[in-house]
Specification:
mainly beta; four-stranded antiparallel beta sheet
Length: 418
């Protein structure tokens, strides 16, 4: 608490910093001072957040010890007349994890839990040189089992629980889960690639990932709340001391499938007068059968997944001169952002297409040899960044959220190589 019973005092001149300018809002400046030094000067005890209900969500410690054993075998052989190259590998990973946290706002009562697990992760990569069939034709195949640790905020040991103040007076709560196991996925990749000269190719690929598990926030019933602090003081009168707990748990996974097409084309291959011109581009389409909010919400996709992602670049490079125009596109995708109290909020980031331009010239002869100049224009169309609030994590929303424009960025540079 504040010293002197909270009586107002002037901030010591020695603690003052340069005022923070808020000129963009019409305010010349606001007071700025050394916060850590002020805490030691004006407070009797350290300042802790012990009043907000969400304190247990932000105060936790996670430790883990990971031991990995791995090996790899290179492959260089033939399958009939087809040359085969690649490698076969395996990892054995043992993880011991532990989390510590608090009961609700009670920072004086800590709790901890954890688990350990071992996963075997094989990996196979093969390249088939189909030169006997067609020159510079390749087929690539990959198969692997992969893993990813659960989110840190899902692994926390914190718990917030109480008896409801309205009838029936039952226990319920929210918690993290230090016993979570990682995401495990089996993936398959297959591509075919045809090369033409040094700067041209076409390729098509298919990929599939089968998640063995997925982490869902679910309500677990018949949890024993014996020994849990009851901050409200309401006496349990039904099904005591058992109740429901909302927490992340490992559940059934699902499949993610996709296709990808890419091309690089040197204009000189089509017509000699197009020498120096070219283009590169790619497009991928991905679908998911995983519903992170449960089967009742089939339209809600996993965070970060765009159904369509593509890019296209047209360029000219010749005699030291270079110019290129690029456009990249990404369809809408669901994202997870942090709210005011550290809670996850589901947000949809809307689709965007951004155009960039770049040109340069390098002196290849004469006294200026080694000198180059670059002009780069990013986001030519001043494409806005748009988001939309959507349902998720117990929230039911569907409304515009942000619309920001950041302008165009112009960069000019001069380089000289000795």
């Amino acid at each position: 608490m504040l010293k002197n019973a909270g009586a107002p005092v002037l901030v010591d001149q020695a603690l003052l910093l340069q005022p923070t300018s808020l000129a963009w809002a019409g305010i010349p400046g606001v007071l700025a001072y050394n916060i850590e030094a002020a805490r030691g000067r004006y407070f009797d005890v350290p300042v802790v957040d012990a009043t907000q209900p969400s304190v247990w969500k932000r105060n936790y410690t996670i430790t883990e010890k990971v031991t990995a054993l791995y090996g790899k075998l290179n492959i260089n052989s033939k399958l009939g007349s087809v040359a085969v190259r690649g490698n076969l590998g395996v990892q054995v990973i043992h993880t011991n994890q532990h989390a510590d946290g608090f009961f609700g706002t009670d920072r004086g009562t800590s709790l901890g839990d954890g688990t350990s697990y071992t996963n075997v992760l094989p990996n196979l990569n093969l390249t088939f040189d189909l030169d006997p069939v067609s020159k510079d034709l390749y087929v690539r195949f990959g198969a692997a089992r992969t893993m990813a640790r659960a989110r840190m905020d899902d692994l926390k040991a914190g718990v917030d629980a109480a008896v409801s103040t309205t009838a029936p007076h039952v226990w319920s709560g929210d918690a993290g889960n230090p016993r979570l196991h990682p995401w495990i996925a089996d993936s398959l990749d297959l591509s075919i690639e045809k090369y033409f000269g040094k700067r041209s190719y076409v390729a098509a690929a298919v990929f599939s990932k089968k998640l063995k598990t997925y982490i869902y926030t679910q309500v677990v019933g018949h949890v024993n709340f014996t020994g849990y602090p009851n901050p409200g003081g309401t006496v349990c009168s039904f099904n005591c001391p058992y109740g429901n707990m909302s927490m992340p748990i490992n559940g059934a996974g699902g499949k993610i499938d996709g296709t990808e097409f890419s091309v690089a084309l040197d204009g000189g291959l089509l017509w000699r007068r197009l020498d120096g011109f070219g283009l590169t581009g790619s497009y991928s389409s991905t679908s998911s059968a995983i519903h992170p909010d449960g089967p009742d919400f089939p339209d809600r996709s996993i965070p970060g997944l765009s159904k369509g992602v593509g890019d296209l670049t047209v360029y000219f490079e010749k005699a030291g001169f270079s110019a290129r125009v690029s456009r990249r596109y990404r369809s809408p995708f669901r994202a997870e952002t942090l709210g005011p109290h550290g809670d996850r909020i589901a947000t949809e980031i809307r689709s965007e297409g951004i155009i960039d331009f770049q040109t340069s010239y390098e002196f290849e002869h004469g006294r200026a040899k080694g000198l180059s100049m670059l002009l780069q224009l990013d986001n030519l169309g001043n494409t806005p960044y748009r988001t939309r609030l959507v349902g998720g994590f117990g929230v039911s929303l569907d409304a515009p959220e942000t619309y920001n424009t950041y302008g165009r960025e112009v960069l000019f540079g001069v380089n000289y190589k000795l």
